Every structure is written in C-alpha cells, then in structure tokens.
Amino acid sequence: MPKKHKLLVLFLALFIVVCGSYIWFRQTHIEIWNKDNRPYVIFPKGNMAIYYIFRPLSYVDGKITGMGFHIGPHQ
Asked: SS3 for 15?
C-alpha cells in the first residue's frame, strides 16, 4: 500500500475515533439549564484538553442540532 494511502487510512481511523468519542461524551454530559430549559453539553472545567479536542465538532453539532455548550456547570 502506498504511503499516501496509509496516511489516509490513519487519518480516517483517527477521525472515526474522535467522532465516536465525541458522541459518547455528548450523550453522557448533558445538563438541562433551569433558566431556559435547554440542554447543554457541559465540558469539565478542570480539563481544557477535552474542550479543545471536541470544540470543532461542537460548533458543527450546535449549528445542526441547536445544542448549547458550556464549560463547567451552570451557576
């Protein structure tokens, strides 16, 4: 297999893993905010790496589904 094909397969595998883990994270970190009764995906306040890894997907998700996103629990 040519080097370009191996790189493409690696990139696609990484993309699938990131998308799958984002879907899992999204489903397990939803909070309904009492102020507006809207669902929000809550990113942990102390672990900004998760926020930066998933932020590009959350922009797309927010545009498609209208989901809100927040760092740390609502106060």
From this structure: helix
Contact 70, 40 (CB under 8 A): yes
Rounded CA-CA distance 7/3 in Å is 6
Q: Under the phi-then-psi rule, with left for phi > 0, alpha for psi from -120 to 50, and beta for the rest, what region is 38?
A: beta
Domain count of the chain? Answer: 1
Q: What is the pTM of this model?
A: 0.82
Within a domain: residue 36? Answer: yes
Q: What is the pLDDT of residues 34-52, one digit of tens each?
A: 889 999 999 998 889 999 9
What residue numbers bound the domain in which 31 lies? 17-71
Asked if residue 40 is part of any domain, the answer here is yes
